[in-house]
Amino acid sequence: MKGVTLNMENKTSSKIDLDSVFSVKNVSVNYGDFVAVKNVSMEMYKNKITAFIGPSGCGKSTLIRSFNRMNDLVPSAKVSGEILYQGINLYDQNVDPVQVRRRIGMVFQKPNPFPKSIKENIAFGLRVNNMTDNLDDRIEKALTQAALWDEVKKDLDKNALDLSGGQQQRLCIARTIAVEPDTILMDEPCSALDPVATKKIEDLMQLLVNEFSILIVTHNMHQASRVSDYCAFFTTKATEDGRRTGELVEYNDTKTMFTNPIQSLTEEYISGRFG
Length: 275
Description:
Shape: globular
Helix content: 25-40%
Largest sheet: 6 strands, mixed
Strand order of the largest sheet: 6-7-8-3-9-10
Distance between the termini: 42 Å
Number of helices: 11
Strand content: 25-35%
Number of strands: 10
Order of helices and strands: HEEEHEEHEHHHHEHEHEEHH
Structural class: alpha/beta
Mean pLDDT: 91
Radius of gyration: 19 Å
C-alpha cells in the first residue's frame, strides 16, 4: 500500500472498528451520467455472510465491485460517498487498489480458471504477491480450505479446464484465498452450477466464514435464506429520464428479513409477487 496499510489488528478505538468489515455511507456509483445505484448506507460485519438480493439491474454487482475497487477498471465508473474497510477509506488517494484486491478477493459468476494446471492456478497469485515460501504447502492449504484437495491431490498437473464446473468454481475460490485475503466477495457464484455443485459451494461458504468475511450477490432466495447471516434487498426506481437506478430498500438479519420484513416491498419480492 502507498503509505496506508489494511492490517487493522491494532485498531481498537471503537466497537465498529472491532466488529465491522465494511461501513458504507451514502455510496452512489455512476457510469458516466447514469446512476447505477445511489445513496446506499449499511454496515457489514466480520466473519458473517451478507447476501445482496433483488431484481436484475438494481446495482447489486455494481455495488459489490466497488468494495474491492473493481469499478476502477471501468473508465466511466465513478464512486461517491464513503466506503470504510476496517476503518480505512478504500478510496483514499494513498490506498493502493492492487493491495485492496489482495485483501478483498473476488469470485465471479462464471468459473474462470486459467488455462494452466491446477497447481499453477493456485501458484499464480502467490508468485504475483511474492508468497512463494513453502509454495507446495500453501497450495495444499488453499485447496483443502476450498474442499478440493482430496479430489485433485493426485493430479495437480491436470489442466484446470478439464475439471467439472463445480470443481472449477472451488478452484477459483482456492485461488482467491491462497493469497490470504480478509474478505471474499462472491458475485452469483452458483448461477452457472447444477444443484449438487451449488450445495457444495454453500457448504463450503459455511466453513469459510469462520476465517473470512463473505459478501454474496444472489438471485436465489432460498440460497440467501440458507447461507447468509444478514441480507440486503435492493430494487430499481425510475428516474426522470426514464432509466432505472438501484436503491437499498431494506437491510436486516436474514431471519427477520425472511420472516418479518419491515418493508412491504421486501415481502412482495421474497414471496415472489414481483421481480
